[in-house]
Predict the 3D structure of the following.
Amino acid sequence: MKPQKKDIRALTKNQLRDFFVENGDKAFRGNQVYEWLWSKAAHSFDDMTNISITTREMLDANFVINHIEVDAMQRSNDGTIKNAIKLHDGLIVESVLIPTEKRTTACVSSQVGCSLDCKFCATARLKRMRNLNADEIYDQVVAIDKQSRLYHNHKLTNIVFMGMGEPLMNYNNVIKAIDKITSPEGLGMSAKRITLSTSGVPKMIKKIADDEVKFNLAVSLHSAIDDVRTSIMPFNKNFPLTDLKEALEYWYEKTNRKITYEYVVWQGINDRKEDIDALVRFCKYVPAKVNLIEYNPIDDGEFQQASERALNNYISILEMNDIVVNVRRSRGKDIDAACGQLANKS
Ligand code: SAH
């Protein structure tokens, strides 16, 4: 059996330089090929026109360039675009382009499926198949950047890790992808325009604080009462709110950066006065703001968006306590592209 060819994009720049030196070429050739692979997003060695044909053939004999493909694209009447992205092994993830007046945001996936079990999220119903590689995460951003230029005449402005999967459970690859996204050799975007959303894995929040990451942190809180949170996000049993609080304090101490809490208010679940009071108390631990997200129904009707009155109660009590609160209307609902609706339906 022929040995399997390696994914060339799993190599670092230095490894690629070493490869050329070991094969009797110049280290500089590694830089050239690296540029083709990342900033020029080449899908084939044949695209590398400043590399000799012999070298291209040698590369082709040793490596493959795995790449993603936009398998299907749906456009919402609000301009949101949902992409079904086919990976090299045929698995599918979804990524979304969300345009607003001033910016375009890419919402990208970090895992195929998800290992968490949030009861209100469609992705949780797909079991986790595998982590995405760094290049598969990066490529989603490149694909959406192209769509932003094509449909909105400007490059992508923001990225949120709010697609499928729990990014902190695929941390190494997410970090490698963010390094590429922010590097001048990749997309050269500012880390300040990237937000990683996590369901709240305390150990990993401390780790990213230690790593002095420069992106923003959002935490899907949804309840600041352990029993309630465990009933809708069962993994909270293993990562209770005291641990989350402690990790967030650690994050703030190290980074001095405000945290965003994502929060959906559901009828009969977290719409009581005591739920609001608990959130207010939680918001006092570290500087934070709250994004109230509209609930996007996922078929079975177990969860219902709370009444306008309950939402207004949240807003007025938070504001009374000087906590910044934004109400986030969902985009792309008509094509199941909104938060929590990514489930490879097509
Ligand atoms: N695993 C990460 C990122 C993916 S979810 C996380 O948990 O943060 C992105 C956001 O959508 C999270 O805040 C999540 O709680 C929210 N969400 C999930 N299902 C939803 C739904 N049906 N309606 C509205 N928001 C939802």
